[in-house]
Amino acid sequence: MLEILNNIDWEPFLVSIKLSFITCIILFLLCILLAYIFTFKKFKAKNFLETLITLPLVLPPSVMGFYLLVLFSKYSTIGKFLEKYFNISLVFTFEGLVLASCIYSLPFMFNPLYSAMLAVPKNIIEASYSLGKSPYVTLIKIILPNIKLAILSALIITFAHTMGEFGIVLMIGGSLSGETKVASIAIYESMENLDFFTAHIYSAILLFFTFIILFLTSFLKNLSNSHSTN
C-alpha cells in the first residue's frame, strides 16, 4: 500500500486543491457582496442577472469552456487587449483556470448565501439600523453570524465542486503538468492511455477526499444544530 502511495503523482491533486482554495476565496468575497445587493437592493436587471449567475448549473461545462476559450484566446479582442496592455494570457494558464472555475462555480457559492440572507429576520436588521449601525457593520455583526451554516455549506460545496471539475478546465487549461493539470484531467489521461490501475487509484483518492469534505459538512451542521437546540 505504501509503495503504491509513494508511486502516485500527487501534483494534479495539489493543483486541484490550490485551484479550489483560490476559487473559494474569490467567490466568497464576491458572492457575499452579490447576495447582499440581491437581498436588500431593488434594480431592474435583477431577474436577468440572477438567471445569468444560475446558468452554469444547467449549461454543459464543455459549452461554457468553448465560449470562454473563444473569448479569451489571443485572436479575440479581449485576448489581444489583455496580452498587449497587461501581458496576461488566460488560455492554458492557471490564471485562466481560476477565472473559468469562478464563473462555473459561481452559483454553488451564490445560491446558499442568497437564500440564507433572504431568511434572516428583517426585524433584527432594522433594529441594527435604528441603533445607528451602518450597512457594513450590520452585515459583519448581524447578517453573517446568522448565516454561518450557509457560509460553511457554500464554501465546502464550492470547494468540492471545483475539485471535481473536468470539462471546463480541460477546455481552458489543457493539461500542463504542475500548472493546469488537475486531478480530473489526470484520471481522464490515465483512462485514455488504458492505465486503468492508475485511474482507479486517482478516482479512489478523489472520491475519498470528496466524501470526507461532505461528511465533515454534515457533522458540523448537526453539531451546530444540537448546540442551538440546547
UniProtKB/TrEMBL annotation:
Residues forming the ABC transmembrane type-1 domain are: 13-217
Specify whether Amino-acid biosynthesis is a keyword of the entry.
no
Q: Which residues cross the membrane?
A: 20-40, 52-73, 85-106, 199-220
Q: What is this protein called?
A: Molybdenum transport system permease
Major location, coarse class?
A: membrane
Q: What does this protein do?
A: Part of the binding-protein-dependent transport system for molybdenum; probably responsible for the translocation of the substrate across the membrane.
Q: What is the lineage of its organism?
A: Bacteria, Pseudomonadati, Campylobacterota, Epsilonproteobacteria, Campylobacterales
Q: Which GO terms describe its molecular function?
A: molybdate ion transmembrane transporter activity
